[in-house]
Amino acid sequence: MNRTERFLTLPLAVLCGAVLSRWVAPEQVTAQSADSGGRYVAVTGPYEQGVSLLYVLDQETQHLAVYEARGGAPNSRKVVFVGARNIGLDLLLDGFNDESEHSYQEIAEQFRKRGISLSKTPVEESEE
Fold first, then answer.
1. Pairing status of strand 33-36 against strand 51-58
2. Is residue 21 part of a domain?
3. Out of 4, 43, 57, 79, which could bridge 34 as a Cys pair, Cβ 3.0 to 4.6 Å?
4. pTM value?
């Protein structure tokens, strides 16, 4: 490799490394704040500039409500109801639009092959 090739290869390698590091270790997404006062859990998170989303979960009825909260000038501040859903049945699904490497069924089969019972989830066992 001559001097010119080495000179061009280094920036290319740095650029590829930067791109790969963003792909392999993407930016972590976290909630801005969360609160649980017993029955309800409320979580906020940024959506776009000046806009946050508020998620409210009723733990007794398993209903989820979503609101968009806009800040800024007094005449543009508002809270908009985006939608609601009973998520009770959603939480019973083993997968939906799941792009994971292994499906729930594949992992469950591996547990069965090792003689591990799947009759109760860790949450169900802790409630006893």
1. unpaired
2. no
3. 43
4. 0.56
Strand runs (DSSP E) across 1-128, as ranges?
33-36, 40-48, 51-58, 63-70, 78-86
Report angle CA 29, 59, 35 to the nearest 5 degrees: 50
Considering only CA atoms, which of 101, 98, 122, 99 is closest in space to residue 110? 101
Whether 15 is covered by a domain: the verdict is: no
3-state helix, strand, coil in the chain (%, to 5): 35, 30, 35
Q: Which residue bears the tokens 């009825």?
A: 61
Note the pLDDT tens digit of each residue in 95-104: 999 999 999 9
Q: What is the pLDDT of residues 6-37, one digit of tens each?
A: 444 544 454 545 544 444 444 444 545 555 56
For the segment 80-101, the average pLDDT, to the nearest whole number, is 93
- Are 56 and 41 in contact by the 8 Å Cβ rule? The answer is yes
In a domain, residue 96? The reply is yes
Number of C-beta neighbours around residue 109 at 10 A: 13
Domain count of the fold of the chain: 1
